[in-house]
Specification:
Layout (H helix, E strand, L loop, with lengths): L10 E5 L19 H17 L3 E5 L15 E4 L2 E4 L10 H12 L17 E3 L3 E6 L5 H13 L3 E6 L11 E5 L2 E4 L1 H4 L8 E4 L11 E3 L2 E5 L3 H9 L3 E5 L2 H5 L9 E3 L4
Parallel strand pairs: 1-2, 6-7, 9-10, 12-13
Antiparallel strand pairs: 1-14, 3-4, 5-6, 8-9, 11-12
The chain binds citrulline (CIR).
Length: 265
């Protein structure tokens, strides 16, 4: 197992939001995101990734898929490899196929999904040693079986966990801080799914800050959550904050806006 493979990255793929992002799926009655503001926030997000030391690869917008800006749900990158996923929402079925040619250009090989299950990247938290995969409205056991052998071939232990009820994705409620430490909401941490890891709990009323990303020496988190930012700084993490309020209107967070990975150079 390569240490720090869960957060040392050289590249990141993201996709520009189209005007159709205003029609993105959401569970609640939140207002439509404004595509122009979304684009500005997306630009700042890419800038934050670059500051953290990765080379951004930005794909063109795809109007036919309103949620395609959330690239993380359609593929899983790990240890220099990539596997295509099968997103769980009907309107998102075609996103993996749309991503495939770009992944073919970037990676030596693209691993196909096995079977007919469903799995969204937002339900998969990779640490150095494990893939923690949350069963959710979008991810089922057949979906997990469809990617299991690819992950096991790279030495990941599979830990099947539960995304809390009413929460879209497992990672809506947590994010990796380092090889042994996870930032998690109390409701998720109390399930015991992080046994063996150190958990830093998200401060009360800041649950929406849980979905952060560790990229090289930085933790990138959502702006507007001062208690979380201060807590992480206090614990020695260097933070970058980014506004993703428009993505949040359609249940998106920070992790889902990019695929982060390492290419041998
Ligand atoms: C969806 O419901 O699929 C999108 N509106 C949001 C996806 C967010 N993805 C993620 O958290 N991994």
């Amino acid at each position: 197992m390569k240490s720090e493979r869960s957060f040392r990255f050289t590249h990141a793929i993201s996709r520009l939001p189209g005007n159709s992002v205003a029609k993105g799926i959401r569970v609640s009655g939140k207002s439509d995101p404004d595509p122009e503001v979304f684009s500005k926030q997306h630009k700042s997000y890419i800038q934050a990734l670059a500051t953290a030391g990765v080379e951004p690869i930005v794909l063109p917008k795809l109007e036919e898929f309103p949620d395609s800006v959330f690239v993380e749900d359609a593929a899983l990158c790990f240890d220099g490899s990539v596997v295509l996923l099968r997103p769980g929402a009907e309107s998102r079925f075609g996103e993996a196929a749309a991503l495939e040619p770009h992944l073919q250009e970037t990676f030596d090989s693209v691993i196909k999904f096995q079977g007919t299950g469903r799995v969204d990247g937002g339900d998969i938290l990779l640490t150095d040693s494990h893939a923690l995969i949350g069963l959710s409205e979008r991810t089922d056991i057949d979906g997990i079986n469809g990617i299991k052998s690819a992950l096991e071939a790279h030495g990941y232990g599979i830990r099947i966990v539960k995304t809390p009820a009413g929460v879209l994705h497992f990672k809506s409620d947590c994010g990796l801080l380092d090889s042994k430490t996870i930032f998690s909401t109390k409701r998720l941490a109390s399930s015991g799914c992080f046994d063996g890891y150190t958990v830093i709990e998200v401060p009360d009323l800041e649950e929406a800050a849980a979905n952060l990303i560790r990229v090289n020496d930085y933790v990138i988190l959502r702006s507007g959550f001062p208690k979380s930012t201060a807590l992480l700084e206090q614990r020695g993490y260097e933070t970058i904050t980014v506004g993703v309020d428009e993505a949040a209107k359609i249940d998106g967070g920070l992790s889902c806006l990019s695929l982060r990975f390492t290419l041998n150079q």
